[in-house]
Amino acid sequence: MFYSGIIIVNYYREQTELLLKSLIEANINMNISIFYEKQDTYKTIKDLTYHIGNVGVDLKTINQNRQDIDIAAFTYNDAKYIRKEMQINNEELYYLYIYIEIYSENIKDLEYFINNIEGILQSRGLQIRNANFREEQLFMACLPLMQNESDIKNIARRNVLTNGLLATYPFISSSLFDEDGIFIGKNIYSNSLIFIDRYNTQKYKNANMCVFGTSGAGKSFYIKLLILRYRLLGIEQFVIDPEREYLKLCDKLKGTKIIIGPSSNTYINILDIRKESIEDNDNGYLATKIRKINRFFSFNFWKIK
Ligand SMILES: Nc1ncnc2c1ncn2[C@@H]1O[C@H](COP(=O)(O)OP(=O)(O)O)[C@@H](O)[C@H]1O
Ligand SMILES: [Mg+2]
Fold first, then answer.
1. Among 9, 149, 249, 303, whose CB has the most other CB atoms within 10 angstroms?
2. Do 155 and 301 belong together in one domain?
3. Domain range for 304
């Protein structure tokens, strides 16, 4: 297998779209490694203030050329902006490193893929560099080892505020990503994670769903998982369960088990009249039952109003 690395060295701070969206949709063999390093807020503000003071003085001295002044003014305003966001909007400063590693079984394809990816990244305004002479460090950084060596770090470092971190969220796919959805599984083509919000009435006509699969494929497991996750989100779940397969789950979640049948003592039909409910006298069960039903309906009508 041949590997080659690309380092993202810069992008527009104003970028609000998801940064890696088009890359993930490109469906090319690659690993993306993203490192975030949270910076100490107190120290950052102190350093920024120091910098702002220094550059402020520089800007006032007149014996510099135009370009120097432009650069100084730019970093000055930038520093002031970051300090303001941290002090007033409670944002935090992070160092961000993004590495992309492309791989293929033959070099020709690899070159083709690299060109492809470079094109995509550049068209989205991201500045990149090939990891020439640093391929090994980049390879290591893309393994799950949390290894980010200074050889590549120093080129890749960008600072972002908390808000900017959002743009680096990688688990997306154009068709199967609902913002408030719950995690379902992985897209086998792009490896991206799939989140679906069945109750999104703007996107779906209704929340109906059907699961197909061979025996033992995991249908029941999946449905139970869904029930659990929706319960965690506070959405009531009802199960019609002729095979009594969900009893355990119901017990675990402290649900109510309703068995329907003449001998059962739980029922959902408010009009159900049991044998023992038919009595003659006024204080008998029938009278109580009628009173109960009366209350039930008046309560409900009141609620509808
Ligand atoms: N995602 C999963 N992770 C781990 N085990 C699973 C997963 N999905 C299914 N299984 C296991 O596979 C077996 C069959 O799953 P099951 O849901 O009963 O299949 P089905 O209902 O489609 O016949 C069960 O033992 C279940 O625990
Ligand atoms: Mg099953």
1. 249
2. no
3. 271-305
